[in-house]
Write a structure and sequence with these properties.
alpha/beta, Inosine-uridine Nucleoside N-ribohydrolase, Chain A, globular, Ribo_hydro-like
Length: about 375
């Protein structure tokens, strides 16, 4: 069996100090919200932004997560950036013609169709995601500074910095999903398109200018997901553990509350679908070690920048420099960052299963989850 339950109890006994967190993403999933709540942190806002999906779909997916877990009354919900700072669909396609098409094009896929309309859901439409982020940081800067988690493109955070440059010093720090390095060999030597996709840093590539603004900024702390997020994958052991916890696959199918769980086990190995659907737990891994820092077992410090030269095959890719030896004095502006390199996968999976089988629907009233009765 994959899971050692003793590690879960040990981990929960050492929950980190509470944090306030603002999440911006281009496709929110349940665990990105539930990991912080399970660790005792407060989510002061979420925003959905264009990237892997369209803006309306990003906001719609966030709405579904909050509604499923009855969290809408205590987690504010906003619409973030509708498009990148400079890059357009046309320039995106031109760059692909010059340097090779990306396997995953997200919201710019020519065949992309929205899954939602704005009439399908509600959110706070009086304030943009960038302004909401600024307000959250300013309101808490003197008492309990906010951590920012950017799990999609960096556009919304870059917008906030351009409006309010003090953001980087008044926030507690930044966590991002993205920042993969040294994957050119892996891309060139595989015979499967899914492997090229997994080794492609779409969060930075879709808006390189925003990524450079954010990563080169003067944060108190900047934690980059990097390569480690590619190594934590769903498996048949995980699916079997989830089904055993539920009692049966049919229980998951027939329980509306478990729809996020059904979405998880209905892809990849369990139903023998196309391997294209078996993707790593990218955003969830960063959310987990942001919430439970002890999961992050190894990391290293560097100077970070993003290639913003359009006439470059590495446009939108992370560049690293040794902080003591070769940080550029001109040309590239860089910022200090910490790259995650090893996470405790056993603890991650233990938490994942436990969290998904708690009842969060009373959280906004009580501040806690209860045992889920099936």
């Amino acid at each position: 069996m994959l899971f050692n339950k003793a590690t879960l109890f040990s981990l929960c006994a050492s929950i980190a100090s509470a944090k306030k967190i603002f999440i911006d993403n281009d496709g929110l999933t349940a665990l990105q919200v539930l990991f912080p709540l399970a660790a005792g942190h407060e989510i002061v806002g979420i925003s959905g932004s264009f990237g892997s999906v369209s803006l309306v779909d990003a906001v719609g997916q966030g709405y579904d997560v909050l509604e499923n877990y009855n969290l809408s009354s205590c987690i504010p919900h906003y619409a973030g950036a509708a498009f990148p700072l400079i890059r357009t669909a046309d320039t995106f396609y031109i760059w692909e013609q010059l340097y090779g098409e990306l396997v995953w094009q997200g919201g710019w896929d020519p065949q992309y169709e929205d899954s939602y309309t704005w009439a399908n859901f509600t959110y706070n439409d009086t304030t943009s995601g960038a302004v909401a982020l600024i307000n959250a940081v300013r309101e808490n800067k003197d008492t309990d500074p906010v951590y920012i988690y950017a799990a999609g493109m960096m556009t919304t955070v870059a917008q906030a910095i351009s409006i309010y440059p003090n953001l980087t010093q008044e926030a507690a720090g930044l966590y991002i999903m993205g920042g993969m390095i040294d994957f050119n060999y892996a891309q060139a030597t595989t015979d499967k398109s899914i492997n090229v996709d997994i080794q492609t840093d779409i969060n930075l590539i879709q808006d390189p200018e925003a990524a450079q603004i954010v990563l080169a900024a003067d944060w108190k702390e900047s934690i980059v997901g990097g390569n480690v997020t590619n190594y934590v994958l769903p498996s048949q052991d995980l699916y079997d553990e989830i089904i055993e916890r539920a009692g049966s696959y049919e229980t998951i199918e027939n329980t509306d509350y478990l729809s996020p769980v059904l979405s998880l086990i209905s892809t990849g190995n369990f139903t023998e679908n196309n391997e294209q659907e078996t993707l790593p737990f990218w955003d969830e891994v960063v959310s987990a070690y942001m919430s439970y820092p002890e999961i992050l077992e190894q990391s290293f410090d560097a100077a970070c920048a993003v290639d913003t030269s359009f006439n470059s095959p590495y446009y939108g890719n992370l560049r690293l420099f040794n902080k003591k030896i070769n940080v550029p004095k001109s040309g590239y502006k860089s910022g200090n960052c910490t790259l995650a390199s090893v996470v405790d996968q056993e603890k991650f999976f233990d938490l994942l299963v436990d969290i998904l089988f708690k009842d969060w629907r009373g959280y906004c009233e009580t501040g806690a989850a209860t045992t889920l009765v099936l």
